[in-house]
Design a protein that fits this description.
Helix content: under 10%
Oligomer: single chain
Order of helices and strands: EEEEEEEEEEEEEEEEEEEEEEEE
Distance between the termini: 12 Å
Number of helices: 0
Length: 257
């Protein structure tokens, strides 16, 4: 019914959530000020009581890399991309301990698990902010990194052009197609691909993206500005537009239930 149930307190700059059972969840946390971020945390949640899990009254968490983002639970572990570093932290779901830190590309933002059990990490690359135009300078390229949880150091890497940061990694319901944003467009990549696609899948700069698992229809959000209403655009699974409708300011995501 979209009514608030409770509030979980005791977190610092919470970012993203994942659960492994009905009673166990995890949330990534940034720590430190904007000018000097500290190593982040993966904090354990008791979903039965909707509280931060504790041991002997001490909050239960694991220190990970700087600015951890959207994790994924796979193969008995939680994989946490550390966006201000070039690593993915691996936390054992049963033991609650950090088991390894994997080097990947610069600026990992999200991790997804495909139908073959392989993990894909979208890395945006690092950017440098300066006081004169163009204000943002890409200092390292983005990349897509694939590996198996059983052999995580054996990695397949696709590198993006030197300018621009990929973002918004998604999987289709069948988990055999990846989607991401780059250069003001959306791209589709089969999990069997060996090169990045040359042509966009949808030639729109979308601020939100989702796929309805019931019919594979794709929903894209468009935000002309932060002072005017946006739009939802519905697409066929082929990328052909179906219809659109006006929504409120700043649409940025979709939930299907």
């Amino acid at each position: 019914d979209f009514k608030s149930v409770t509030t979980i307190n005791g977190l610092s700059q919470p970012r993203y959530f994942v659960s492994t059972t009905a009673a166990k969840g995890y949330v990534t946390e940034w720590r430190g000020p904007y000018t000097n971020y500290l190593p982040g945390r993966l904090t354990f949640l008791n979903l039965s009581t909707n509280t931060v899990a504790t041991v002997g009254g001490t909050p239960l968490s694991v220190t990970v890399g700087r600015n951890p983002e959207q994790p994924v639970a796979a193969a008995g572990s939680i994989y946490v991309p550390n966006s201000l570093d070039n690593t993915v932290s691996v936390v054992d779901d049963e033991l609650g301990t950090l088991t390894r830190t994997l080097p990947v590309g610069d600026g990992p933002q999200a991790v997804v698990e495909d139908k073959n059990g392989n993990l894909w990490v979208l890395c945006s690359g690092f950017v440098t902010y300066i006081n004169t135009p163009p204000y943002v300078v890409q200092s390292s390229p983005g990349s897509l990194v694939r590996f198996s949880p059983t052999t995580p150091t054996t990695q397949f890497k696709l590198t993006f052009p030197a300018t621009g940061s990929p973002s918004g990694l998604h999987l289709n319901p069948a988990r055999d197609q990846l989607y991401y944003s780059f250069g003001g467009a959306e791209y589709q990549l089969p999990i069997t691909a060996t090169v990045l696609p040359a042509a966009p899948f949808i030639r729109r700069d979308l601020t939100g993206f989702g796929i309805d698992p019931r019919d594979n229809a794709i929903y894209g959000a468009v935000s002309p500005s932060y002072s005017s209403n946006g739009r939802f655009i519905r697409y066929q699974s082929t990328g052909a537009p179906i219809d659109s409708f006006e929504v409120k300011v700043g649409p940025n995501g979709f939930v299907f239930y």
